[in-house]
Design a protein that fits this description.
Chain A is α+β, with helices and mostly antiparallel strands and about 160 residues long. Chain A has two helices and eight strands, in the order ααββββββββ. In chain A, the strands form two sheets. In chain A, strands 3-2-1-5 form a four-stranded antiparallel sheet, covered by helices on one side. In chain A, strands 4-6-7-8 form a four-stranded antiparallel sheet, with helices on one face. In chain B, the strands form four sheets. Chain B has a five-stranded parallel beta barrel with strand order 9-10-12-14-11. In chain B, strands 1-2-3-4 form a four-stranded antiparallel sheet, with helices on one face. Chain B has a two-stranded antiparallel ribbon with strand order 5-6. The longest helix of chain B is centred in the first third of the chain and has 35 residues, at about 20-50. The chains are: A alpha+beta (about 160), B alpha/beta (about 350).
């Protein structure tokens, strides 16, 4: 008898909620622009460079930031290539740009630090050489150059 | 009395009017689209937080406020003479990522300044704000301005901020604690025995890159006996000795602990102790077997091509940095990383 009176409000809300969840999963993000995503990754890379430089200066040892454009991650490593611990999380300082099964928001296109994929700081905290990191979010490219003296990343305008 | 139980039976529903169904469908679609956008944004923000370690506090506004604090400090350093800054000097800028930053400094006492910084940025759907407050000590702090010494160089003068002791003949210090710059003129000789020195030892050639280096017996000389603890001071951080034409002699009984960059013409340290920092020299280096040089790991370095003497002080040294062996770099980029 009850079913003949149509849908209850609760039923409608459940249907709406299910539809919202399905739509959220299916819909690509439209509120997070590529520039914003690139800014975020640039800041994360700068953080890693700053941390490596700080470690090199304070411990008088070689540290660096290693990039992997294939697996899409970067990590702060010591002279043996072992990732150091993140001072906050106490886990390896390894930042992934990809989540399993997720489309990439930002990818590392290429890395070149004097022919290497690692930005190295010597025992005095000075960069072994400057370098460039190319990022991409969708069709938006961002070319970053690391200054040898300050280890600061800056954007480079690229034609086309 | 007869009770008639009557059952009210509703007539069978004749079906929802067609237009009512369309209204319901349209409402559902609109509500779905509106909420989907909101949830998608929140979802991506959460994913980004997980992926990129937002817990490190690396938001644009935080970065902007920190960089503005550095900027205000730098402006204070190169601005008015210490102790004469006016209250409430403002500085404002807009960062490349669009954050508006404002900084100001206030004189709280003769040698203290309070720096306040505010950064504001407009993200997609909210306004973020970050504030920083810091206290800063003016160099030379509570010392009078006469501690700023102008050195006459062949081209352009150099101003040393902080205490400067100029040594032109022979000078000895025994069992004492010293601070500031010690400038050795050509031919000067400084002898330190059981001394703690918080500062930097310079020669005229080290302070003025265009002053020709002294040669032969006219070279300034630093003699060390007993203990010497040389800690780079705040005036020239991390720089202990800038003396490319100086001879450093420490005898076999000396105990030397140097923390900071060292440059000299000849270095003979035969005692025990440690030198933290790069050592560059022109002609000769001799470190005793009991001298530790943590983090050194390099052979002799050539004297840098350029000493940059800023308007305020000897502010920077530049030198070749091709110091990390190629095999170390290759090891760093080829090591297996768990989960990498």
């Amino acid at each position: 008898m009850r079913s003949e009176r149509g849908h209850t409000l609760l039923e409608l809300l459940v249907v709406v909620a299910i539809l919202m969840v399905l739509a959220a999963i299916a819909m690509p993000s439209s509120s997070n622009g590529p520039e914003r995503k690139l800014d975020t990754v640039q800041l994360a890379i700068q953080d890693a460079l700053d941390h490596a430089q700080s470690l090199a200066t304070s411990t008088a040892a070689v540290y660096g930031v290693r990039f992997d454009a294939e697996e899409q991650w970067f990590a702060v490593v010591d002279a043996t290539g072992t990732p150091v611990d993140d001072p906050l999380s106490h886990k390896p300082y390894l930042v992934r740009l990809l989540l399993p099964g997720e489309p990439p928001d930002v990818v590392i296109d290429s890395v070149d630090f004097d022919g290497h994929i690692v930005a190295v700081f010597n025992e005095k905290g000075v960069m072994h050489s400057g370098g460039a990191v190319h990022l991409r979010s969708g069709t938006t490219l961002r070319w970053l150059e690391a200054d040898t003296a300050t280890a600061t990343l800056s954007q480079v305008d690229v034609e086309g | 009395m007869t009770l008639h139980l009557r059952t009210h039976r509703r007539p069978a529903r004749a079906g929802r009017p067609a237009e009512a169904g369309w209204v319901l469908a349209a409402s559902l679609i609109l509500a779905t689209m509106a909420t989907a956008v909101t949830i998608t944004y929140a979802r991506h923000a959460l994913l980004a937080k997980h992926t990129l370690q937002f817990g490190k506090g690396a938001s644009e506004v935080d970065e902007a406020s920190r960089s503005e604090l550095e900027r205000v400090r730098e402006l204070m350093r190169i601005g008015d003479k210490p102790g004469t800054l006016s209250t409430g000097t403002h500085d404002s800028a807009v960062t490349p990522t669009g954050e508006a930053v404002v900084g100001e400094r206030e004189v709280t006492s003769h040698g203290k300044r309070e720096l306040r910084v505010q950064a504001q940025g407009n993200s997609t759907n909210s306004t973020e704000e970050a504030r920083l407050t810091a206290s800063s000590t003016v160099v030379p702090g509570n010392k009078p301005e006469v501690d700023r010494t102008t050195l006459e160089c062949p081209t352009g003068d150099v101003v040393l901020a902080g205490m400067v002791t100029i040594i032109s003949g022979s000078q000895s210090y025994v069992g004492t604690e010293l601070a500031g710059f010690f400038l050795l003129e050509d031919g000067a000789e400084l002898t330190l025995q059981d001394v703690i020195l918080r500062g930097t030892i310079l020669t005229r050639n080290g302070a003025c890159p265009d002053h020709l280096p002294a040669t032969g017996s006219n070279r300034p000389q630093l003699n060390v006996y007993g203990g010497l603890k040389l800690l780079a001071g705040t005036e020239l951080p991390d720089v202990a000795i800038v003396a490319p034409d100086m001879v450093i002699e420490a005898d076999a009984t000396s105990r030397v602990d140097v923390q900071g960059f060292v440059s000299a013409d000849e270095v003979h340290v035969n005692g025990r102790g440690s030198v933290h920092g790069m050592v560059v020299h022109n002609t000769d280096e001799q470190f005793g077997s009991k001298m530790r040089r943590p983090g050194h790991g390099r052979g002799p370095q050539a004297w840098p091509d350029v000493i940059s003497a800023g308007a305020e002080e000897v502010s920077s040294l530049s030198f070749p940095v091709d110091l990390v062996p190629e095999e170390t770099i290759i090891a760093m980029e080829t090591a297996e990383i768990d989960g990498g």
